[in-house]
Every structure is written in structure tokens, then in C-alpha cells.
Amino acid sequence: MEISKKERLQQIINVLKENKILEGLTPEKLRIILESLGPTFIKIGQIMASRNDLLKEDYCNELAKLRNKVKPMDYNEIELILKEEYLEKYDEIFASIDEHPIGSASIAQVHGATLKNGDKVVIKVQRQNIKEKMYMDIELLKQAVNILHIESIIHHIIDINSFLDDIYKSALEEMNFKQEATYMEKFRKNNINVPYIKVPKVYTNYVTSNVLIMEKIEGLEILDTEALKKNGYNLKTISELLANSYIKQAIYDGLFQADPHPNNFKIQEDKIVYLDFGMMGKTSEQERYILEDCIKNIVKENYYEIVDNIIALCNQKEYNHQKLETEVKIILEKYSKSSLNEISVVSFFNDFYAMLKDNDIKLPKDITMLIRGIIVIEGLLKELNPEISLFVVLANKVKEREIEKIKSGEYLKTTIKQAVATTENMTKIPEEILKITRNINNGEVKAKVELHNSNKQVDKIETMLHQLVIGLLDVAFIIGASLMARDSNESLRNIYLFIALVLSIWLFIKMYIDHKTKGM
Fold first, then answer.
1. Which of 59, 131, 279, 504 is the most exposed place for a label (fewest CB within 10 A)?
2. What are phi and psi of 459, to 5 degrees?
3. Could you tell me the CA-to-CA distances from 501 to 65, 306, 325, 509 in Å, in that order?
């Protein structure tokens, strides 16, 4: 039976009082409160667990324990929802549905079923009116916080109003099953050439905003190590493949599983199967480029460049570059004496989060979700293979990518584009100098600056810059040819050498002509 808003508000207040929130809020107390408040708050807690940028580590770790501890819906309610979604087509779709759920979570419940065509599937059914209930609960929680005057208690932990609004937006996206089906299809395409990754088939004709039907996966639990060994699987191999898969989707695909806990994976016929796509993260091409560059700079301990990466990633307007560089250097020096495979991802990122908070820098939400995902999956990987290191996997993946860029010619294209852009910018320098000179001359501070034969000087500068760029391209091609020789790619090496030869001849001819005409 539905309760009124007034009754629900009283429930929330009672739970807060029973847990003595006025005496302080510990991580464990927060988890217990959310569990006591029911499904919508359990989902809020699960999303909160991925927000290391907003919550301290001990709170995130405690909230990560909130997994599927929700009372299941009655089967009659499930059947009613399905009939409402499919109307007269209901009897044409399902041959049978298992009455006992496979799992019951805060947003949805999963049942096994058989379609009329004989396919074994699972049905993910969203709880009735969950969006409206969650919105009402969040608004009532805000009221309860105001009534009990507990802002002063939790303000050092979180800005409750803006945080809850942000969480609700994230939950709404997860509640859209049509969006989840789209993510599944995109994820499948991203991994179509990865033989060890599988995505369950989605029955797109039957997907609605509240119901998702997908292939039933009969496989082994990824942490059922005894069963995996008994069936001939190598745990070390599984951990390495999963690590490579996660880094690929996070750094290069732009679509990643943001909640990679063990229940979201199975092993079936030598494949790692991703099961849940409700909580996904996305990174733009620019963000992926910065992340890749940042990884290279972390490995090389380029403090200054890492700061530039952070500022670009966060689009930060106000910051102290020197302070940031010093603090980044301190963090890297802390781990510099350890080899990459000895560095804990959790410890490293926690130090980084503390540094960012100290400088009032906030990472984009999806980047925060990515880092949290990396932390979560490292815990899973360590269960399979205690010796694995995500830092090593990251470094190796970046190196592989660099080699791929060189072989495909992508590196060359990028170099040329950068050289052209640099040329365009540098040729504007004489013009900008003239503008600055005019501004000084017209300002309060007078300065006489004379440029004799300015057009001729500009021409000389432009010629010099053009030759510089050609020289840089020449060096780039020679380096590229050397790398091709190392990789035994003779055809591409010969192309690079030919282009380098042409550029060298052109450059020497141009220099000779300039020398002969000097002073003219």
C-alpha cells in the first residue's frame, strides 16, 4: 500500500533519529541509514560509492557494500508490468517466465524466461514508478535535513542538496533501458574484433524504457576460482585479458563499464562476458587524448606536463601552476622508488584526489567514474592474480598504441598537422609584435620602435620559419624510418626515407638560393 508524503517524511526523520545522525555521520552509519530507507536510497548509495571526487575514500568503500539487498517484487507485480508494457503482444512473446527472480536490485528485478521461438533469455523489469518515488524521496530527504538542522554536521562531508540533484540525474540515465540497450550495441561494436569479449544479445524489438530482454548467459562466476581451475581456465590469463579490455574501453573506446564489480561478469566458452550496462561512463576524444598523454607523462615523471594535462582535463581557469607542479612532483617521488607493478592504484589515486581537493580542482564526472571503475576492477583483478598491476597494463597499452600510430601513418599525419599549425601561428608573430608596438606607442608609456624595411624583415622571418618546419619534418621522417627498420616494416620505411630525401634536397637548394641572394 502506498503511503502519503507526510508519512514517508516521518519515516525518513525517524530513521535519521534512530541512527543518531545528530551525533555525527560515520561511513558505516551512512550505509545503514541508506539501507533502512529502502530501494531508492540504496541506489543513491551505490552511485555515491563511485564519486571519490565528492566523498572521502572510507565513505566510498563502505557504500560499495550496498549490493542488491532489496526485497524482491511479487511475481504478480512483474507480470502486471509486462502486460502493461506489451499489451496484446504479451502472450505472443513469452512461452514461460520463471516466477523466482534471479536477482532483485534497487531499480529493477531480473527473471529467467523462454521466448516463443525457444530462446532462453533474462528479463530486466524496472520497479513501478521508481522515478517518481526516487524524486519524492530525495525531496523529502532535503526537507528532513532542514527540519533536523544537520547541515552543520555533514557540510564537511558533502553539499547535500547539489549532491542529491546530481545523483538523481545519474539514476535517471540508468533507469532508461532503451539507453542501456544502445550502450550494449555500441559496446559490442567496439569489441567486435576482440575474440575474448562477449556481450549478450539484446532483443531490441522488445526493449522498452522499463523492460530489457537479453540473451541468458550460462557461465561461471568470475570469482569462482575453484570452478574456473577445474574447467581448465588460467586465472592469470583471465586477469590480464580483463585488464587489457578495461583499459581499451576506458582510454581508447570512449565508452566504459563504470561499475565493474564481480557480479557484472561471467566466463563462458573462453570469453569474458559483460552482463550489466546500466551504469556506463563516456569520455570525449579530447579527454582520451589528454588521458593518454597524462599516462605517458606519469611514467616519464614529467611534472610540468602532468599539471598541463590536469588543467586541460578539468578546464580549470584559476590555479597556481607552481604549487600544483610541486605537489604532483611530491606524489610521483613518493612512488618513484617502486617499480610500476608495485604501485597500488588505490593509493596513487587517493593521493591524487587529495591533491586536487587541496587545490580546489574538480575532475569531470565521467573521469571520476573512470578512476573509480579502475579502482574497483583492480580489486577484482587482484582476487584472480595478486601479481597483476594496472599501471603496467596502462603503460604497455600506451606503448602499443604509439607503435600502432607509427605503423598506420597516424603519427605522421598528426606531426604534419601540428607542424602546419605551428607554422601558421609563428608567421603571425611579426604582425603581433607590430600590434603590441603600436599599442605601446599609443598608451601612457611612450616607446619609439622603428622597423626598417619591415616587409622585407617579415619575409625573411617567414622564410626562416618555413625552413625550420621543413627541417623538423625531415627529422621526423628519418626517425620514422628508423622505427620502421626496427619493426621490420621495409615498405613503409622506404617511403619515409624517400620523403626525407626529397625534403633534404629541397632544404639544401633553398638554403643555397638564400645564401646567393643574401643582402638583396
1. 504
2. -60, -40
3. 63, 36, 42, 12
The identity of residue 159, as a single letter, is: D
Please choose, from the candidates 230, 256, 227, 228, the residue with its C-alpha nearest in 3D space to the C-alpha of residue 243: 256
Beta carbons of 86 and 78 less than 8 angstroms apart: no
Say how many residues make up the chain. Answer: 520
**Rounded to an integer, what distance in angstroms lies between the CA atom of residue 127 and that of residue 133?**
10
| Grid cell of 502 as nine digits | 626529397
Where do we find the cell 606536463? 305
Q: What is the rounded (10 degree) CA torsion for 293, 363, 63, 26?
A: 130
Sign of CA dihedral 6, 11, 13, 14: positive
3-state secondary structure 192-232: CCCCCEECCCECHHHCCCCEEEEECCCCEECCCHHHHHHCC
Report pTM: 0.71
**What CA dihedral angle connects 104, 107, 112 and 113, to 10 degrees?**
150
In the block, cell 616607446 appears at: 447
| 148 Cβ contact partners less than 8 Å away, ≥ 6 residues apart | 13, 16, 17, 21, 22
Which of helix, strand or coil describes residue 255?
strand
pLDDT tens string, the chain, 520 residues long: the values are: 567 888 888 988 898 889 888 888 888 998 999 888 887 788 888 877 777 666 777 888 888 888 656 788 899 999 999 999 998 788 899 999 999 999 888 889 999 999 999 999 999 999 988 888 888 888 888 888 788 776 665 655 566 777 778 778 878 888 889 999 999 999 999 999 999 999 999 999 999 989 999 999 999 999 999 999 999 999 999 999 999 999 899 888 999 998 888 889 999 999 999 998 988 999 998 998 898 888 888 888 888 889 889 988 888 777 888 888 899 999 888 887 777 777 778 788 888 888 888 888 888 888 888 888 888 888 899 999 988 888 788 777 777 776 666 655 555 555 555 555 555 555 555 555 555 555 555 554 444 444 444 454 455 555 555 556 555 655 665 665 555 555 555 666 667 667 767 766 766 666 556 555 544 4
Amino acid residing at 206: Y
